[in-house]
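All the exercises in this workshop are built on plain-text protein records. An example says more than a description, so a record of this kind follows:
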Amino acid sequence: MGARAAPRRAWRAGGWVEGDRALPEEVAVAFTYDGVSHAVMMATPDDLRDFGIGFSLTEGILEDASEVESLEVVSLPTGIDLRFWLRADRGDALAARRRRMAGPVGCGMCGLETLSQAQRAVPRVGQGARFTPQEVAAALEALPPAQQLHAETRAVHAAAFWHPALGLAALREDVGRHNAMDKLAGALAARALRPADGMVLMTSRISVELVQKAAMMGVAVLAGVSAPTVLALQVAETAGITVVGIARRDGFEVFTHPWRIEEA
């Protein structure tokens, strides 16, 4: 469902080659809570229940997945609607939030009404697990073989969770890196895996939005194959998150809270 073949004409080795190319799907996904539309995201239509729960957790709509009484994935001609019905107390809290702030969305910083919303307060994470450089390398080595949709399309991001006892315990892919992170959050919640017990890996730069979502999840170590932004590091420092960047086979760089990465 996440990819579809599209005909194309390719120039290869000095000549034209006819054939198909697998491309990622991208559809509009709406989030509706207790009958009220909340946000619409463009996303890869895989792992949508994980996406729905994870987005709701990382955006502070839910405190726990148990607050969802039901979730229906409804396919429509114009896209997909994730229809949530929340426990009464959580529904009341969301209604109060709507009265304070209209139209929040989770695709980066779009749709925010004030500068203060871009600098939203996030919780400080706990101590979390510590890792050796060799474990960081092992986690990164496990990532590419598990990226099935990317291997097919070369056009999606991945968010993964590596656990010292379980190895690569979960991986989710999407055209949007924020969506991939939300899908991972939902997958971990479904399996009752504590994010602080492992490290989260991203196949992208570490932006401030990813750090904010990581803090909401309780992630203690966040690693990306590219560099972080300055604002991301400022938020990570305050939230107590260890940020690892430029994470490649030949090494990596630790930018915040380096005490979680230590020699054996």
The chain has a mean pLDDT of 93. The domain at 133-260 is CATH 3.40.140.10 (Cytidine Deaminase; domain 2). The chain has two domains: 27-118, 133-260. The longest strand covers residues 3-12.
